Amino acid sequence: MLATYPGIIEKRTETDGLDSNWIDLKGELLQLAQYRVDTVQQKWYRDVYIEYMMDIDSFYPTRYSEINRLPQGILAEVFFLNACRQNMFNCVPSYGEEDIMGADFKLTYGDETRFFDVSINTSGRSMKKKVKEGTFPTLFLPWKKDFSDNGDGPITYAERYLKYGRFDGKTFLHSILDSNYIVLDSLKRKVWREEDVQKKIFNNESLDLSESGIQYIRTLEGVLLLMRRYL
Predict the structure, then answer these.
(1) Average pLDDT over residues 187-203
(2) What are the phi and psi torsion angles at 23 (to 5°)?
(3) 216 near 133, Cβ under 8 Å?
(4) CA pair distance 45, 119, nearest whole angstrom
(5) DSSP letter at 194?
(6) For 96-140, how does the pLDDT look when each residue is reduced to its tens digit (9 = 90+)?
(7) Beta 105-109 vs 112-119: how paired, if at all?
(8) Is the confidence at residue 149, as pLDDT, over 70?
(9) Helix (H/G/I), strand (E/B), else coil: 57
């Protein structure tokens, strides 16, 4: 598991810790990719993840920012999974077969289980597709953040991990909850009240939420409520 946040992080040079931090992250990326390969039948899907594994295995960053050259989707999934583990969530990656159907993770609390997708793509076009009625609910992950405590400016969680070797999973999950409750509120206003939603979501001026519906709202709300029980 990626190292947790200790409270105070000292500045490092560009080379201090980068090697060991990348080795830790690389191992988790390869483990998740292999898990997906091992739990799917479709050759095209296996080929995609095998290519991910080849890119990850041959990748070696010499600067922190170079981590952003890797596929950001699988990076974000690894950080989300680590955040869940840090906070004792009963959350596991979906099988490759389930991923094809649109579910990245399975979260369980007591007798209740929820399948859901995660995404860092918050463009209007992507969100229209992701919040469509009949799909698994999607948690949009705030992937790039202004970490004012270190004055880094807006950088991805992966880049920050390479630099400092620490990841605050609890803060990450709270940020996900805050952002996705804004999404949920906007969906309710649009679907239930037929309001023209003008609120900014992830810096988008306007969003097309026309393809969402009551069932999608209920499933998204169910996932968020399950997360809140753990936090």
Answers:
(1) 72
(2) -60, -45
(3) yes
(4) 18
(5) -
(6) 999 999 999 999 999 999 999 999 998 878 888 999 999 999 999
(7) antiparallel
(8) no
(9) helix
Q: Give me the phi and psi of 107, to 5 degrees please.
A: -115, 130
Residue 37's pLDDT is: 97
Q: Are 159 and 12 in contact (CB under 8 A)?
A: no
- The residues facing 4 across adjacent strands are 167
Beta-carbon count within 10 A of 115 CB? 17
The DSSP letter of residue 62 is S
* CB count in 10 Å sphere of residue 198: 10
Q: Which residues lie below 8 Å from residue 88, measured CB to CB, with a gap of 6+?
A: 230
Both tokens of 202, joined, read 């992830």
Write the DSSP string, 7-56: S------SSTTHHHHHHHHHHHHHHHHHHHHHT---HHHHHHHHHHHHHH
| pLDDT over 60 (residue 11) | no
* Pairing status of strand 112-119 against strand 138-140: parallel
Helix, coil or strand: residue 160: helix
Q: Per the structure block, which two tokens stand in for 152?
A: 């880094």
